[in-house]
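Quiz preparation item.
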């Protein structure tokens, strides 16, 4: 049994200046509490743009990093040298290294298929069908899954909070604002963000679980919005399809291309 331990902090109301989708509205509280999620920064908040946030990962986080890294290692390239690690020998950097190894040598569609296979391998038989029965695409299901995202995915994306969104003209608390995505921050790669997180996660919830999900990464500050209940747009109509590389931080960036090459088939 995995025991989750979080530190609950009390903070006064502050003003946040995030660039948000028009559908996203922050939920303001007076003296509200939130989960610290293992950040080791003195402020308790993600580091500013251009600096990597420091985390204190516990047993829960390392178990998930190890499970996903081990599954993905089966698809890693020949040059990857991290095989045969123990269950607690993985950290976040090694998890990202495995992801990068999977990306190299595969086009956009192939990368997404690998992630889909990894996600499916983590589920017991019949799980998607059971999920559809338990969580039909309703307002309640969208809000419930948004609430679950905050504590159970902080190991992957960092701290987040549930926010109010508008889906088909209806206001609901089925949005999740990721303050500074840990995966994007550590990889520094637009292609990995889109092909190995955004698109496969959207497709997994929308097509396998039957609960629409749209993810809206902000490449200016590395934040991200998740909107449960909102169907994602076709890739060709998604603004991320035209996103250039992070030339200053990505180890495989192509400075001569106006669009990240990993976003092209």
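Solution:
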């Amino acid at each position: 049994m995995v025991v989750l331990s979080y530190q609950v902090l009390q903070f006064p109301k502050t003003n946040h200046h995030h660039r948000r989708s028009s559908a996203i509205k922050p939920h303001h509280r007076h003296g509200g509490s939130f989960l610290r999620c293992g950040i080791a920064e003195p402020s308790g908040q993600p580091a500013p743009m251009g600096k990597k946030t420091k985390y204190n990962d516990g047993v829960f986080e390392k178990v998930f990093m190890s499970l996903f890294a081990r599954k993905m290692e089966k698809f890693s390239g020949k040059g990857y040298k991290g095989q045969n690690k123990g269950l607690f020998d993985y950290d976040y950097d090694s998890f990202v290294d495995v992801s990068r190894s999977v990306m190299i040598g595969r086009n956009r569609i192939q990368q997404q298929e690998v992630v889909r296979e990894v996600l499916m391998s983590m589920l017991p038989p019949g799980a998607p069908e059971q999920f559809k029965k338990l969580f039909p695409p309703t307002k309640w299901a969208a809000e419930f899954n948004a609430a679950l995202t905050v504590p159970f995915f902080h190991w992957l994306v960092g701290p987040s909070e549930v926010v109010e969104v508008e889906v088909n003209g209806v206001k609901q608390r089925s949005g999740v604002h990721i303050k500074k995505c840990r995966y994007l921050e550590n990889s520094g790669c637009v292609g990995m963000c889109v092909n190995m997180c955004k698109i496969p996660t959207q497709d997994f919830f929308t097509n396998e679980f039957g609960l629409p999900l749209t993810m809206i990464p902000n490449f200016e500050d590395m934040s991200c919005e998740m909107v449960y209940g909102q169907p994602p747009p076709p890739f060709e109509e998604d603004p991320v399809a035209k996103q250039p590389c992070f030339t200053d931080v990505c180890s495989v960036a192509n400075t001569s291309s106006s669009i990240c090459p990993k976003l092209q088939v």
